[in-house]
Design a protein that fits this description.
mainly alpha
Length: about 170
């Protein structure tokens, strides 16, 4: 049996890129001084619905090479998209509320917050995984599988999604 609170503890409010399909570690990321690599990490984080992490990588990239850097264009475009910024900010707020609710055992209320977070930010992999985990806790396996399918569309090699999927198949 999957330990709900143990699994939930894997999703702190601030995940690092090293959890991206078993990618590079946080220490390795700190040493990345190539602006193109930082730009790529920013694009990956943006695709995962992690705007804050994306902007951090693009800002570092811009610092490393302030001239003729694609990161400048990415940051400029993001800042123009007020609705996107608002939605991503609200989805993060809802995610944080949901995490606190889930830790207290209020899984139904956590599901409500997570569903809204995913609605506002459909690429938010972290929220999708926690929502699937909450559905699994409630034994709503079919709904959890649907959420895991969404995760795998964005991130096909996500190890948590694969593990949760295998767990559900055994039920």
């Amino acid at each position: 049996m999957l330990n709900f609170l143990g699994e939930l503890a894997k999703y702190p409010e601030s995940l690092s890129v090293d959890q991206l399909s078993g990618g590079v570690s946080g220490d390795e990321i700190q040493g990345i001084v190539d602006e193109k690599a930082r730009n790529l990490l920013g694009l990956i984080e943006f695709q995962r619905g992690e705007l804050g992490e994306a902007m951090k990588h693009w800002s570092i990239s811009e610092y490393l090479n302030p001239r003729h850097n694609q990161a400048t264009a990415y940051l400029r475009e993001i800042k123009k998209e007020q609705e996107l910024l608002t939605n991503m900010s609200e989805s993060l707020h809802l995610f944080n509320e949901a995490m606190e609710l889930a830790r207290r055992g209020n899984v139904d209320f956590a599901i409500t917050r997570l569903r809204k977070a995913v609605h506002l930010n459909p690429q938010y992999v972290k929220a999708q995984l926690v929502l699937a985990l909450c559905y699994m806790e409630k034994r709503h396996y079919k709904t959890a599988l649907g959420m895991l399918e969404q995760v795998m569309k964005t991130e096909p090699l996500n190890p948590d999604a694969k593990r949760y999927w295998a767990y559900i198949q055994r039920q």
